[in-house]
Amino acid sequence: MDGTSGLAGRRCKPCEGGAPPLDPGEIAGLMPALHPDWQLVDEGRCLRRDFAFTGFNRTIGFVNAVAWIAGTEGHHPGLEVGYRNCVVSWRTHAIGGLSENDFICAAKVDRLLGDP
Questions:
Q1: 7, 51, 85, 109 — which has fewest CB within 10 A?
Q2: pTM score, two decimals?
Q3: CA–CA dist 53, 62 (Å, integer)
Q4: Phi, psi dihedrals of residue 69, rounded to the nearest 5°
C-alpha cells in the first residue's frame, strides 16, 4: 500500500512524552501521501488544511466525521469551524511536533472526501 490508502489503513499508537517528533526528512517522506492542500505550519510542527463547503450543514457533517476519527484513534485535532469552512490542524502536543499519528489522521480525513 502507498499514498493515503496506506496511511489511512493504519491505526494511531499511544504517544508518550519524551519521544522525539518526526525529523524534517521523515516529514518530507510522508507529505506526498497526503492531499497537496495540507501545509506545514508553526515551523513544521503542525499539519493544517482548510476545507470549504457549500453550507453550514455540510460543514458540521464534516466536523462530526472528523470528531469520530479523532475519538476512534484517540488523537485529537484543532478545529476552527465557520459557516462554510473548517480548518483542521494536527500536531502531537505531548512531543511538541509531528508524529506518524498526525499523518495517519490527516490521511483518514482525506479519505472522508475521497481525496488521494
A1: 85
A2: 0.89
A3: 9
A4: -60, -50
